[in-house]
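Example 3.2
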Amino acid sequence: MNISTLIDEILGTSTYIGEFSYNDLLQYGKAHGISGVGVSDDQTRKFVIAFEKGEPTGVILIEEKGALYGEKAAYMLQDTNNFELFSTDPSLVNALASRCRVFDKIRVQSRLAEDLPSIGQRKHSPGVLCLTIVRNGTVQSGMRVSIRKGRQVIGNDITTTDGRASFKLLNGRYDCVVLDKTQEVYTFMIDFKDPYSESIIDIGG
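Structure, written as tokens:
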């Protein structure tokens, strides 16, 4: 049984609870000890979060090109997603979570205030960071690149044919997460200081 069929079967036997923002979803699930499934579907990509006894234990990202599971899917979550929450039989949730378990729970937890970007007391204009992803001197197209500040996803992009991904950022230090076509994850620290900056990231062989 493929994952989309399993999700459809689970939702077919579930009870709809309501629609929530990402952070409200996590808070409601924990407060009520929910065993269920949260689904965000914007037609181009679908996120599924499995809840066991109120804890988010599994994440799936389904796109036209395929699916990501566990930590790899959790890397792509953004606080801007809205989710429909369904109450589900715990055994079905466990079967789903076993395919997409997230062992590093920090990836799906709500943002903490100290992890938000600090912009000081005066207004700052964002700059532009352009990254070129290469491997052994060859530019890499179709790579998923995300910029993070603590637990907050600042932006996501997919590299173009010339290996480039671009982001609008305030000055500061960020984590750059690159997901290649074999689903390997690479993390780098970026120190962004200028109104416009270009950097090359080599993900190796």
